[in-house]
Design a protein that fits this description.
2 copies of one chain form a homodimer. In chain A, β12 and β13 form a beta hairpin. In chain A, α1 crosses α11. Chain A is of the alpha/beta class. Chain A has 2 domains: about 210 residues, Rossmann fold; about 150 residues, 3-Layer(aba) Sandwich (Rossmann fold), CATH 3.40.50. In chain A, the strands form 4 sheets. A 5-stranded mixed beta sheet of chain A has the order 3-2-1-4-5, sandwiched between helices. Chain A has a 4-stranded parallel beta sheet with strand order 7-8-6-9, with helices on both faces. A two-stranded antiparallel ribbon of chain A has the order 10-11. The longest helix of chain A is centred in the middle third of the chain and has 22 residues. The radius of gyration of chain A is 23 Å and the shape is elongated. Chains A and B meet through α6, α9, β9, α10 and β13 of A and α6, α9, β9, α10 and β13 of B.
Chain lengths: ~425, ~425
């Protein structure tokens, strides 16, 4: 019997609090399927490592270290923001990958990323066959942006959602106590250049119109300064304070990012701050309210300490499913999350063809945003609420989360 | 026998993740001492409420609601940034407070705040006697800045410390995975206008020189751009990435805040961003590294979800001790934390005279900062490490921390 082929696993794009849980699902499932698949190699720094034949032998890691991936944020093998050129323009990168696969007996390529990565995996699945070295290519979904199609939601998103909703609730309690003599308006800037999923999730913290956040600014809704300021003023007059969550991707009527709205520093650089400080300053300039603002940036997508249990479980399950699909020879597919019911929340794993996922983007539906454009609807809450459920804190050591760092032993090179 | 006098409790200054745990300690201890003290009233929005005779009757809250204060951030009765005028200049505010105390049978005033508040409490303790209405005035320490003297540490600080150290560790795992094709330098701005305690605490996340944060910028150390950039470059050359924690209070050689360093937007406003984005942009301009930055702002001091167990316990114990001191008639004092040993960490409650605490500031000792000025020493770790120990997460409901909002029923006014 032929020696079973190896798996190559690669992480792609911005990392999340749970992408390593997917890696854990891949490696543990492959280890349990001994005899059916060979080793799991990981590409160092994502597809860049694959192109450079810079591979990591995960069989050199202990079972304990691999299990610890389930509670460790970031990308354990390194990720990459690197998009292959369109195959019509340049086949060499694709051919190089197949060459590396052939040199290391890679029979299965598992690409863990967003819609760009699904495109790459799909193209690889086709060119391998053309070159006489067929590789089973599986996309494994991952993105805090929650914008992949054909899956109910994306691993990584639920944990950011839990973090931003928790954070704005907490900051709301703070501002509510300070408003009589200090801060009246608090602004939190969150991720989401194109889709407002994360901003929407922050809205879960508000269970009544008195709760933070009272105002959400979505990239899907053109920013209207007058309407926004009127809403802030009305809220402050009613409650004494106001909490705003703004997506980094909010744009003005001309389609320009607000944070690029022409403000420059003394050296002519585009203003350093993001849209959070921009909005906060606008409130103070126009309404005279004292402001404070926060920009969560990477803190939101790496906050494994407050990860969603549902998110961690789904991330793991998708990694496990990818290996099972690979062993079954299901080429050019992506395992998905299928929602069975909202309440009680039930989900199962499904499968989608890569070609139908690649390069598509799922926006926040207009029906998830209230008519006035400043908050989320009940339909949105029904969709989002299960995704932030459950707590699975990491182990702590000396008061801090105890995250694992792998040895990441290189696979000896075989190509020149 | 005379009816026992009531307690007036007031929160002051910036709130914390655990100031309500102190309130819980005050109220639960007073309830248990029935017969020795009357009701606990709380001043709405801190001393402002006391001046306006706007008092809250905490006896109208259930035992369960009061117990929930122990896990709820912010200030449950409202706080104030409001400093009384010096008594030599204007006695009327002090006299007004005594008038309110007299009208509501207040025999004990518990003022929960920083060094300004200790000064106010001290002055009140003297003027009451002069006016023939002696009130037992107790200061209860609270400040994320950790800058009160005569107490080993201040409630509120340990939880911010745990939050910032956790956050920069998590962001470090993120940047480490992204550096090959994306972000190389990550900057986190933290609180601390005058003292670098919070910045120092972030340093706990680095257990080796390869860990985030590799560079700390303290307000105690004059910012030297050349040395800083050289250190960033050296770190990126060694590891591929670098994580920096900067205190909002960092100053240049002329004593000016860095973030006020002359950059203005197109309308002539002082630049919106804080020192975090300023430092991040400097790194990109001078060294060409791609940066990301975060400003935690209120998120850090309201993050009850990741509070330190030691901090919560001490906050509660100080509130309880304040009531016991009050009942014992100990006037013009502040209960303190006394460290008995570092390892195992043991502490007990002590007492300090308010006049020795008022208006003093405890800076980070130079011996806690490494010679090069960019990190913390072993002595600093020994001091800080116990303060972030233990996890006491709040209860969660629907995936989010379940915090309490009190009814805050007003006490009927008696003055005109």
């Amino acid at each position: 019997m032929a020696k079973p082929k190896n798996i190559l696993y690669a992480q792609s794009g911005g990392v999340t609090a749970v992408i390593n849980a997917t890696a854990c699902g891949v490696i543990e499932t492959a280890r349990a399927a001994k005899g059916k698949v060979g080793k799991v190699y990981a590409a160092r720094n994502g597809i860049v490592g694959a192109l450079n034949e810079d591979l990591i032998d995960t069989s050199r890691e202990s079972a304990r270290a691999i299990a610890a991936l389930k509670h460790t944020p970031g990308g354990a093998f390194g990720s990459a923001r690197f998009k292959l050129k369109p195959i019509e323009e340049d086949r060499t990168q694709y051919e190089r990958l197949i060459e590396v696969f052939r040199a290391h007996d890679i029979g299965y390529f598992l690409y863990n990323g967003g819609n760009d990565s699904m495109d790459t995996a799909w193209k690889l699945s086709r060119i391998g066959e053309e070159l006489g070295y067929p590789v089973v290519c599986i996309g494994v979904p991952k993105t805090v942006d929650n914008d992949l199609v054909l899956t109910d939601n994306c691993p990584g998103f639920g944990s950011v959602a839990k973090y931003v909703a928790t954070s704005i609730r907490e900051a709301g309690f703070d501002v509510a106590s300070m408003h009589s003599t200090s801060t009246q308006v608090f602004v939190l800037e969150v991720m989401g250049r194109h889709a407002g999923w994360i901003t929407a999730a922050a809205g879960l913290a508000a269970e009544s119109e008195n709760d933070a956040p009272q105002i959400l600014l979505f990239p899907e809704i053109t920013f209207d300064q007058e309407k926004f300021l009127a809403r802030v003023e009305r809220t402050v007059k009613r409650l004494g304070w106001c909490a705003v969550v703004v997506s980094e991707g909010v744009r003005d009527a001309e389609g320009k990012f607000l944070a690029e709205g022409g403000t420059r520093d003394a050296f002519g650089h585009v203003q350093l701050g993001g849209v959070g400080p921009y909005i906060a300053q606008m409130v103070t300039d126009k309404l005279g309210y004292k402001n404070h603002w926060a920009v969560a940036d990477y803190l939101q997508r790496s906050a494994r300490h407050i990860a969603s249990k549902v998110d961690v479980e789904q991330a793991y399950a998708l990694g496990a499913a990818a290996v099972k699909l690979a062993i079954a020879g299901e080429n050019a597919v992506m395992p998905t999350i299928v929602r069975v019911s909202d309440q009680p929340y039930r989900w199962k794993i499904g499968v989608a063809p890569l070609k139908d996922v690649a390069n598509k983007e799922k926006k926040l539906p207009r029906s998830f945003i209230t008519r006035d454009g400043f908050h989320i609807t009940e339909a949105c809450r029904r969709y989002l609420s299960p995704l932030i459920r459950g707590e699975v804190p990491p182990p702590f050591r000396n008061g801090l989360p105890d995250y694992v760092r792998l040895k990441n032993v290189p696979v000896p090179r075989r190509l020149v």
